[in-house]
Amino acid sequence: MLALTERTIFVLMVAVFGSITLWGFFNMYRIVRRGRAASKFQNLIPQAVKAFLEVGLQTPVYKSRLILTTFHAFIFFGFSYYLLVNLNDLLEGFLPGYSTAEVSTGIIGPLNFLGDVLSIGVLLGVVVFLVRRFIAKDKRLEFNKDVLLYPAVEKGGVKRDSLVVGGFILLHVGSRFTGQALRLAERSIINPMQPFASALSFALRALPPSAFTSAIHASWWIAIGLIVVFLPYFIISKHVHIIAAPVNLGLAKQGERGHLDPAVPPGAPPDLAPGAATLADLAWPRLMDAYACIMCNRCQDVCPAHNSLRPLSPSALEINKRYWLNENFTGFAGGAASPPLTEFAISPEAVWACTTCFACVRVCPVGNEPMADIVDIRRRMVNDGAELDSGIQSTLEKIGKTGNSFGQAARNRAKWAATLDFKIKDARKEAMEFLWFVGDYASFDARVQEITRTVARVLKSAGVDFGILYDGERNSGNDVRRVGEEGLFEQLAEQNIAAMSKCNFQRVITTDPHTLNALKNEYPDYGGKWDTIHYTRLLAQLIDEGQIKLAKKLDYRVTFHDPCYLGRYNKGFNPPRALIQATGCEFVEMPRNKENSYCCGAGGGQIWMGTTPPGERPAENRIREALAALATLNGHGGNGAKPDKPLLFVVACPKDVVMYTDAVKTTGNEGKIEVKDVIQLIAEAMGEELQTSNSQLQNAVPA
Amino acid sequence: MNIVVSIKQIPNLTDELEINAEGTGLDHDALQYVLNEFDEHAIEEAVLAKEATGGTVTVIGVDTTGELDGALHTALAKGADSAVKITGDFPRGTDSHTQAKLIADAIRGMSPDIVLTGVQAADDRDGQIGPMIAAHLGVPYVGVVTGVQVKEGKAVVHKEYAGGVMAEFEVALPMVVGVQAAHQPPRYAPVSKIRQIAKTAKIDEVTGGAGPRAGSTVRRMFKPESAGHAEMWEGSPEEVADKIATLLAEKGLVKRG
Ligand code: SF4
Ligand code: SF4
Prior knowledge:
Chain A is mainly α. Chain A has 30 helices and nine strands. Helices cover 53% and strands 5% of the residues of chain A. In chain A, the strands form two sheets. A five-stranded parallel beta sheet of chain A has the order 1-3-2-4-5. In chain A, strands 7-6-8-9 form a four-stranded parallel beta sheet, sandwiched between helices. In chain A, helix 24 (513-522) links the parallel strand 4 and strand 5. In chain A, helix 1 (4-33) runs parallel beside helix 8 and helix 25 (535-544) crosses helix 26. The radius of gyration of chain A is 30 Å and the shape is elongated. In chain B, strand 7 (141-151) and strand 8 form a beta hairpin. The termini of chain B are far apart. Chain B contains six helices and eleven strands. The chains are: A mainly alpha (703), B alpha/beta (257). Bound molecules: iron/sulfur cluster (2 copies). The site of one iron/sulfur cluster has 15 residues of chain A, from helix 11 and helix 13.
């Protein structure tokens, strides 16, 4: 038990530091409250249960970095258990004669054992983290050269904080553990239920007997007193994630990933500017993000912009927000405005480097959504007439004028179909089962039109009752929305919905995953509620049902790239794989597949940008990954040995065809690997079953 | 500062242009109309001038398409203060003489300090509207301008000559400027703003009288007739090489071994 003065000091400390901490949490609450309204959270209880399980099982952390996550799990479980341990320590300090160090029986025995083992787990975990940061200097904790950093971050704030937190944990847990060993050493006993503390106690027996009492008291203070002193620091430390992260996970985005929140919260006054210029323009969960962020850079690891050395880092964005808030804590809580986000959180250039691939949001262990900030910042820039990339501006203008990103006349939209030897139904005139929303790239890009025709031919041969909107279709607006042009998106959505509402059909199929996303997830808000699927899903079903017969077995070795908006956004992982398997091709997964697929770099308006920045482009990186994966398969030497069958890079998105065909060329891999859309494999495997033809192309074959 | 911008709509050039049945002009009804690109620069330069010196920008045009409102709303979204459209029986492709007269008549009463317009438009390529407005108003005109600065009663305009030579003019106001390019790329007008303006803004309507009509008529309009035609050869490099060799031999340029 502690002496009376010690107990008095402790109680006073709790009162003082506790009050500061409560005041801190109160201000944190006021800070988060300054954000704009978020879309309604529903099912709070199931969400809370889900978050509790996620935290308990550490599943969100296990989405990447498996080994480090295991060490984190050591610390997490140890720390959670320490709630109990610290309670016990308090009793030891305040109850006369209460001591449990030597108990090895009853309920305390196994509890002691857990405490002992977990202490070592925590210490080990923290040492690993400190070594990795300060000795091994893990590169992943660094930022690209031109990433905008808030001065406090630039000066190594995260490093210092990590050192403080690491040091705190080492002292706290180490001291508590040593205290146990001291108690055992004092009485020269060992406790089989505290094996590690017992081991240490042997060494401590060498202390002079008079030293034990003060050493035990010191260990108590360093373990428990330290927590109290540390509490106020907690508010400005990344360690606050132990509270903010579970809350954030409980409040994580609900509904479809591909559904962006509107640019102004529903019910907001009409003059509220869309999107975000300053911190207070962000929805409040985005301010919570800054507190939940553990500054692990996992989001940066998976960011295609970061990996192509662009000045964008989703983690830097969150970290900058947090450090700005730390330095303007009471001011912002009290209503002061922040400077523009583009001045301290993320550079304008970085804002325009995001492909909206969702990888950062998906991987973040604490449920942060850096991408949502970026889209909101774009929205405000567009609204305020900020200077836009010339390519993006001219594309938006083209879409505004002509309804498509190619600036072509609407009546040219279905020109690709003119050379087919059958006429595709006009959805505006006839009823049909499937309305095929073709999309801009599939309709207008000369490199993709042949693939679009193949889709039509396969559908026709399979007896699918389908039609298209002809000139009635417009750009779906998916990427328009993601570059921040909310008004144009709404206009396009309304126009498409109006056109589609006049037609008679049961379901919608799309070739472009981007249009899939808009129609499936965002059009319902505007009254367009249809059952929309990607054509790969329909085809997989038709093959299953025997409506498409594959006459030929193909002999390629292939890998498949999950387009972001088909895979990660809309969970369309399996149908394309099922299609590939059905053709008999040998299938190899790339290391980054499905949820962890790597963006081609086209999304979020990037394909419209007027400039190509230097550095390895995401698509080039992906082609190299594919070649490596395809080369390591059994029976095929990886060292430049000639492959025994042709290699294919299979995609299921018209933009991917463009991006990767180009990347194969720019990486000098022409002839080594070919880019094909899934549909081309199916068509080839159908052989004679593919009855229709492309008449004009046949005529064009030179005599 | 009272700034007036004269605009007009022209066929969208990314569209395939169709010739009318008589072969004397474009088949206007089959075409989509957009704002003349040079006029977009004129609007931008006007808004920049207003931002620099204050004043108001009025955008005016002859409604030849029934769709001029869209262009006027866009101009308002970019920072113009008021919009005027001249209505009457003016078909698509109304000649520049008529348009210049209608505009000059409509703006005379506005007593503009400076009138900006696109230096030319792709539909008639005559670059006449600006000079003719100036003539009707009896004020000076400078064309092919790439930057305007207005200062008390005077404008300094930059003009680009061929061969990369620049000139700076100081002209007493009022004057008419034919804009080649604004000194900044025309800004983007967010659609939400345009839609908002479309709901609330008022466009003043002026009924136009009869125009003088152009002194010339188009006798025949046609697409270029190609003199020869190109044949595309496809196939592997070997096959194509073989075809080239055969052709050269056929023409007697080389002997095939
Ligand atoms: S946003 Fe998430 S993934 Fe990125 S650094 Fe913060 S916690 Fe890590
Ligand atoms: S959405 Fe993709 S590109 Fe954008 S910040 Fe996140 S990971 Fe990077």
